[in-house]
Write a structure and sequence with these properties.
Layout lengths: L1 H19 L3 E5 L3 H18 L1 H7 L1 H6 L4 H20 L2 E5 L2 H22 L3
Antiparallel strand pairs: 1-2
Helix pairs in contact: 1-2, 1-6, 2-5, 5-6
Keywords: Membrane, Transmembrane, Transmembrane helix
Protein name: Phage holin family protein
Organism: Enteroscipio rubneri
């Protein structure tokens, strides 16, 4: 049940990022909400499995930059999720530039934090 809530929160956050950030577009032959749900699923799986490893490996740089590098790790996870979603399902999001992915990672982090506070998840 926790994973389903995490998936829904991530999908809503991705939908907000697609709506707000220029340079992030939904692609694929399916409807937009299906592509966002697929991308949200893959991003949730990456956040559970790969992201903690990347955070530990980048810990020295994160400490030196006072936590700013954590946003770069989030951006790289967006790129990995987009690559996997587009490669496996031919649906997901298209990221135009690193700047748009960086802003999208900030938007997704903020919206996820707000949504997790609403549903009561840490």
């Amino acid at each position: 049940m926790n994973f389903i809530i995490r998936w829904l929160v991530t999908a809503v956050a991705v939908g907000v990022a697609v709506w707000l950030v220029p340079g992030i577009e939904v692609i694929g032959g399916t409807e937009a909400w299906v592509a966002i749900a697929i991308f949200g699923l893959i991003l949730s799986l990456i956040n559970i499995s790969i992201k903690p490893i990347m955070q530990v490996l980048s810990l020295p740089i994160t400490v030196i930059t006072l936590g700013i590098f954590y946003l770069v790790v989030n951006t790289l996870m967006l790129y990995v999720a987009a690559w996997l979603a587009n490669g496996i399902f031919q649906a997901g999001v298209d990221i135009a530039t690193f700047g748009s992915a960086f802003v999208a990672s900030i938007v997704i982090s903020i919206v996820s934090g707000i949504m997790n506070a609403i549903v009561g998840k840490d």
